[in-house]
Write the structure tokens for this entry.
Amino acid sequence: MKIMVINGPNLNMVGVREKGVYGTKTFSEICDYIKEEYEKRGHSVTLLQSNSEGEIIDFLQKAYFENFDGVVINPGAYTHYSYAIHDAIKGNVGIPTVEVHLSNVHAREEFRHISRTAPACIGQICGFGEYGYVMGLMALENYKGE
């Protein structure tokens, strides 16, 4: 499978900011882990990160136009208010998308309990650190469609 992994705002600062929430592994280390795990399972992976909502939407549209088989997305804080990213995920008709979060968003501040993007996805995984990205891949591997 050809998989796109999209990371949203501030995820490039993982390992530097809020280590008690996000851990001490750097973003680069997490990306290396994702790449290794996906390729070990025989999949090609494109890893992307942006602090810009518009660029994330561009990535999602690229997934459609370049015939990706699935998307794993951590929209970061955009999770909680971006109807535009929600619509971009929905616009990728036929490309299953899994929302992933490093932390358990439901155990954090109340505003993080609501996801505007998850309803456009086939599911949401949170609280398992970088392993959540592997769980997202496993969900895509096992997804049977609607």
User: Anything to note?
Assistant: The beta strands are 2-7, 44-49, 70-74, 97-101, 123-126.
